[in-house]
Amino acid sequence: MDILYLVIPCYNEEAVLDETKKRLEKKMKELMKAKKINKYSKVVFVNDGSKDKTWEKILKFHESNSMFSGVNLSRNRGHQNALLAGLMTVKNDADMVISMDADLQDDIDVIDQFIEEYKKGNDVVYGVRSSRKKDTFFKRNTALMFYRIMEKMGVQIIYNHADYRLMSKRALEALSEFKEVNLFLRGMVPLIGFSYTTVLYERAERFAGESKYPLKKMLAFAFDGITSFSIKPIRFFLFLGIFIFFCSLIILIYALIRYINGAVIWGWTSLMVSIWALGGLQLFAIGVIGEYIGKVYMETKQRPRFIVETYLK
Ligand code: UDP
Ligand code: MG
After folding, report:
1. Residue 248 domain-assigned?
2. Which range marks the domain in which residue 86 is found?
3. Residue 312 pLDDT more than 60?
């Protein structure tokens, strides 16, 4: 039977942890009893440099039941880094790993479906929110906009999927080949490939405590997501530069006609043409330099160039 690990990043979550532990304990026991998972399965809390009693709580859980274990990070590094730290730490001990938030917003009853899909041969199972009814109008629409922009920028992400997902051991192995420092797991996991599927679930409200993602962090996250995956913004300026340079040629013709007709004051023609021509050329040049910087940027990521799915011996 396969070993399941749940990986849960926690940052100042002392208000929710007791309840989370209680519910997960029940869930894990049910799954073990139903012989869906191995009895050596575990729940791993990753303490992301919390300033409250989160780590003390995790230690206590571990003492009371070996099903609970923890990873303590040296300092706060943010959700994505904490999650990756957890995944990479447990990947050799588990056959499948599910990542979820500490605040019980992700419906833990869909874990059964995750495991079923895994047993059907899927290496990645994405939890997808079926609706955003409970979100505020603002969050719902900014989130929607975010997915749209990402799509336009050519970043492959699963619509309405946060970081609630199951990954198999080999999917985690593949993820470990991505050496990039700017983490945006939602964009990285689809790059791994393998067979995957999605499972719908209803996202609840935060059980207790408050969101660790205020607007400022949310915007930074979205911006990071775009700039770590796409060099399209750079290319945009390249094309804008070319476009403006062509405009300058039209303006040159227009200005010359006006000049020949004598309908202008002295200096207007040369000023007009140089503003447009120089502006266009400059943007064009920045765009070209940007193309190279974009390439350097992509190279420095040292992403794997391929990932082997099956190896016939
Ligand atoms: N989190 C973390 N480090 C941080 C911020 C958040 O590990 O610096 C964790 C947090 O404890 C939670 C998850 O990331 O388990 C998602 O955070 P939150 O629920 O606050 O985000 P929201 O659901 O409001 O988007
Ligand atoms: Mg939350």
Report:
1. no
2. 4-229+303-312
3. no
